[in-house]
Amino acid sequence: MSYVSLSWWDLAAAGLLILLNGSLSLALQLGMERRLLIAALRMIIQLTAIGFVLKFIFAQTSLWWTLGLGLVMGLIAGREVLARQERPLQGFWAYGLGTGAMMFAGGLAMMFGVGLLIRPDPWYKPEYVLPILGMMFGNTLTGVALALDTLTATAIREKNAIEARIALGHSRFEALQGVLRQAFKTGLMPIINAMAASGIVALPGMMTGQILAGADPIEATKYQILIMFLIAGATALAVFIAVFGASLRLTDERHRLRLDRLRPPTS
User: How far apart are CA 128 and CA 110, in angstroms?
Assistant: First the structure.
């Protein structure tokens, strides 16, 4: 495979588009220019750093280095799950539930895809494990965060209706049925939209990267289909685990709604 190498000057030229965005924000008085600049600088630093880290780890082909970086990626992704919720659970549950669901589902999907379908030698080859694991985490965290945020927000909004159903003798899951359904739908909607738009509206990132690197378009297509199936499976499993666990935490064994277990709203 062959590809066209980019210079740092090429990247600097592309960065002029960010300056254009900042100029538009200033002209329209949107107040987003500072956030845009910080986000761009953060992206440059993070991607440059991970590039050097990956170059080192790829050269080692070590199970422990691969698992170590995968664990760090999962823990950081869990922090993003927490940050995207307006009213998360109190205590360790706020971080542990979403992180655990995402890491379990993402890791399981990665093992299935790499170990059973792609089958590199060795199976823990970081060139396969880490990019695929990153895609699993990047997509499942969005689904889990949206599902948990929808669950808590809807439970707060429908508090009276939920408690009325419980008072009529419904179990906690029967009373939360509509809330759970809405949370599941919201968590799965991004990956459903992504699959529906792939190939017609947009070429997904992995497929585009492989084609730019010189891969055969048909082979790139097969890899992208595989990845989308893995992401869909991981997202559905992670959303189910997170929503089910959160619903247990939002209620108790006496089938009472426990909104006091949510963090208070920030002013």
Answer: 9
